[in-house]
Amino acid sequence: MTRVGSAGSDRADHFPRTQRKGPRWGVVLLAAALLLWACERGTDASDARAVAPDNAREAEAPGDEAPRAASSELASQENAALPAGWSLVQAERLSAEQNAQLQRAEEARQDLASTLMGRVMGVVQEKGAPAAVEVCHGEAGVLTAEVGEEHGVRIGRFSEKLRNADNNPPQWAEAMANEAGDRRLSVGPQQELAVLSPIRIAAPCLTCHGDRQSLEPQVARVIAEYYPEDRATGYAEGDLRGWFWVEVPGR
């Protein structure tokens, strides 16, 4: 499946979620719930890692100068890639006000994840998996904008292998993306706090994002119809799918 500024521009009326249950889709619903849990678990696990490369210096021996120099150089390179006025920051060095911003960002991210998943689960239950692709195309951008407005943040999703070409990230988010899939924090020129959190592929994701040749024919047909230039297939469980980005304004 990107109120204050959302990266995605998909637009459609916000249809109410459906909550009917049918034995035929019990397994699918369980898989969708596991997907949400796995995505959240993947993000939480990455939160415990370093959020900036020089975080590793905390655990180094006092006399180990080579790793310190390499870490410092990498941090300088990443900071240089950020837009003017932006800089990486470590979570343990946030001020009280910045910690409050971080909490808002995490609440917004979790709200967006559960909102999108709840909508998909309702559609899968009522109409089947191919219909979920239609919902992603027609409603994901609207739901994302609503979550952003509710929390007073800018929020969205993006990936190097896009399905929706409108999900373009802000410059700071693109600069902070990293192959390791580690969360990153940065502070902007107006004291904005920016948070980039990974999205990893769980087993149920493969229904729409697995090997293209293994997709169900109806799912593949709908993807081709709505996303003729789709690049978001070929993933395996555990792969880095993309990123949630959240920008919380400063005072």
Q: Give the averaged pLDDT, no decimals.
A: 77
Q: What is the count of structural domains?
A: 1
Protein structure class: alpha+beta
Shape: globular
Number of helices: 7
Largest sheet: 5 strands, antiparallel
Distance between the termini: 33 Å
Integer-rounded radius of gyration: 19 Å
Name the helix and strand elements from N-terminus to C-terminus, one letter apiece. HHEHHEHEEHHE
Strand content: 5-15%
- Side by side, the strands of the main sheet go 1-3-4-5-2
Compute the number of strand runs: 5
- Helix percent band: 40-55%
Low-pLDDT regions = 1-70
Description:
A 5-stranded antiparallel beta sheet has the order 1-3-4-5-2, with helices on both faces. The model is unreliable at 1-70 (pLDDT under 50). It has helices at residues 26-47, 65-81, 96-127, 129-151, 171-176, 206-209, 217-226; strands at residues 87-88, 154-158, 184-187, 193-200, 240-248. It is an alpha+beta fold and 251 residues long. The protein is globular. It has one domain. Helix 1 (26-47) packs antiparallel against helix 3 (96-127), helix 3 (96-127) runs antiparallel to helix 4 (129-151) and helix 4 crosses helix 7 (217-226). It contains 7 helices and 5 strands, in the order H-H-E-H-H-E-H-E-E-H-H-E.
